Amino acid sequence: MTEKTKSSQIGSSTPDNTTAIKEYLNTKRGLVEKALQQFIPEQENKLESHIESMTYSLSAGGKRVRPILCIAVAEALGQDMTDLMPIPCALECIHTYSLIHDDLPAMDNDDLRRGKPTNHMVYGEAAAILAGDSLLTFAFELLSYPSLVGAIAPENQIRLINTVAKAAGPLGMVGGQALDIASENKDIPFETLRFIHSHKTGALITASVQCGALLGNASQNQFKALSEYGRDIGLAFQIVDDLLNVEGTTEELGKAVGSDADRNKATYPGFFGVSETREKAKSAVEQAIKALEEFDQKADPLRHLAAYIYERTN
Amino acid sequence: MTEKTKSSQIGSSTPDNTTAIKEYLNTKRGLVEKALQQFIPEQENKLESHIESMTYSLSAGGKRVRPILCIAVAEALGQDMTDLMPIPCALECIHTYSLIHDDLPAMDNDDLRRGKPTNHMVYGEAAAILAGDSLLTFAFELLSYPSLVGAIAPENQIRLINTVAKAAGPLGMVGGQALDIASENKDIPFETLRFIHSHKTGALITASVQCGALLGNASQNQFKALSEYGRDIGLAFQIVDDLLNVEGTTEELGKAVGSDADRNKATYPGFFGVSETREKAKSAVEQAIKALEEFDQKADPLRHLAAYIYERTN
User: Fold this and answer.
1) If you average pLDDT over residues A274-290, what whole number do you get?
2) For the residues A136-142, what does the mean pLDDT come to?
3) Measured distance CA(B100)–CA(A140) in Å, rounded
4) How many other CB atoms are found less than 10 A from the CB of residue A70?
């Protein structure tokens, strides 16, 4: 293990590392947003309003965690991402569609998202459902984008599409959301909360890491280690979100603080209290960094990123 | 042109042909429904209700036009479909999701579909939105299904996925639905109605035909001719649906007769009257059959199917 990788162990994060990962995230976020603008369908006669409703949510900011993870993993394996940007962009489209549908009146009924009015507040409920449907479908257009021919081995590309579809579908993200909705105002055991988190949030984060692994032609062992990393930071990410929902400010969250508790949603702090929840987040991040043991310094952004998730709670 | 192909020209359809195509459609529908049952995710602990809501709409009957078209086209090109059934099933999943979302209170607010309560009437609005989301995502899991490896050239499979995604997405089916919703209670020119039809219904029907063409390794000319066939029967299909909505019985339609007019939706009979609309359907069917000129008798089911669409109006 190099000195550099050691320095990103949680608890020993330096201000330099924090600045470096923030700069890294800003740069990658810029690349993702530029690529999204490039790929989103052109305004077409008669469909201006529909395309606008898709673009509204896609351009509403956000951390772009999933595409950045995909890029960082591929680059950790030495892959140049220049010609492969449709893939990370597709992951962001799926995430954005899930937010639009989660916010709907029939679901979480949220008025604000990332500090802006939610899609249905601006375009109405029908248009918001359709904006989500289009973003989800468009994601698969991007995953099979003609410009990728020759840039990825077609067998890898099909496996990648299957990985994303499974993670986002009935036994993945949508299943998690379905159980989340069905569990509102109910006393659920911790096991059910864990299931909701790992499906609703964890599955697409893990798949984003696996996409990077497939793009970087990971060996079987590398794929396994990276999937473990994905599962661990997915968990950390969700625990930290629960913590911020209890402790954060509306400004940080872009939505009302305490809104989970208001809806009687089960959360980690609700089960374990703030202090033990914080320990669990730390432990997940440590596991994530440990999963990267066999990787060289090209994986440092992945290590710093894991540590940074935890630091958001401080 | 063989005697057999001549006999399926519209206007010269014999009772024998009608019986034959009905039997053909029944057989293929059975195959599709058996395959759907095989592929739909198993009931999983905690997600029973979500999987049930998907299965409810998927099993609610329907003509299975899109998967049957895909199969009939591939078989017209000599392709054995036994190992390729995930592809036609995916098309039916996309069609079913679109019906669930179209029926939602925020959209067409329909209580009945195929003679049964709509998804949201049974499972509630949130669950219905999610059932649709899962069916759409699951379609792409099927299009990239592991069992297809080796059964299709991977390049063809990626092109097929891209074709379906484009047809179902923002500049295809969802775009058409968005414009349809936005046009309710408005005076729209015929050109806009044509755009809505060709996007909302036509795009996925054409894509279903193109999937069959890709599975059957169609030549460039065959692909072009079959795409033309797809566009023509897509148009015929929609015109006939408009006619049945005016003329049909609730039993035939599985929904309230005249419901389009009730919502002030533009229709072909609204623009042209019933008699001229009937002529337009006939002409579209004739065009469709003409597009198959260069195909041998293996394409007869496609010819009979086109003729049968028109016969539904008699």
Assistant:
1) 96
2) 98
3) 20
4) 32
**pLDDT higher than threshold 70 for residue B263:** no
**CB spacing of A134 vs B175 below 8 angstroms:** yes
Phi, psi (degrees; rounded to nearest 5) at B116: -120, 160
- pLDDT (tens digit, 9 = 90+) per residue, B229-248? 999 999 999 999 999 988 76
What span, in angstroms and rounded, lies between the C-alpha atoms of B150 and B161? Answer: 16
Give residue B311's pLDDT. Answer: 84
Q: Do A165 and B138 touch (CB under 8 A)?
A: yes
Q: How far apart are CA A112 and CA A61, in angstroms?
A: 13
Work out whether strand A116-117 and strand B112-113 pair parallel, antiparallel, or are unpaired.
Answer: unpaired
CB contact under 8 A, B132 and A137: no
Q: B140 contacts in A (CB within 8 Å)?
A: 140, 161, 164-165
The helix or strand, by DSSP H or E, that contains position A112, with its residue range, turns out to be strand A112-113
DSSP B172-207: THHHHHHHHHHHTTS---HHHHHHHHIIIIIHHHHH
The pLDDT value recorded for residue B7 is 41
The DSSP code for A36 is: H
CATH 1.10.10.10 fits B3-311, yes or no: no
Contact A157 B158 (CB under 8 A): yes
Measured between CB atoms, which of B124, B141, B169 is closest to A165? Answer: B141
**Best B40, B49, B58, B129 residue to mutate vs chain A (most A CBs within 10 Å):** B129
Q: What is the largest CA-CA distance in chain B?
A: 58
State how far the alpha carbon of A60 is from the alpha carbons of A63, A65, A112, A244, in Å.
10, 14, 11, 20
A interface test, pick of B101, B130, B180 with most A CB neighbours within 10 Å: B130
The most distant pair of C-alpha atoms in chain A lies apart, rounded to whole Å, by: 58
If one counts every other C-beta atom within 10 angstroms of the C-beta of residue B87, the result is 29
ipTM, 2 dp: 0.93
B310, pLDDT greater than 70? yes
Among all residues of chain A, which has the CA nearest to that of B154?
A: A154
Q: Which amino acid is at A252?
A: E
Question: In a 3-state reduction of DSSP, which class is residue B267?
Answer: coil
pLDDT tens, residue by residue, B149-190 = 999 999 999 999 999 999 999 999 999 999 999 998 899 999
Query: Of the candidates A65, A166, A35, A231, which has an alpha carbon nearest to the alpha carbon of residue A158?
Result: A166
Q: With an 8 Å Cβ cutoff, are B107 and A129 in contact?
A: yes
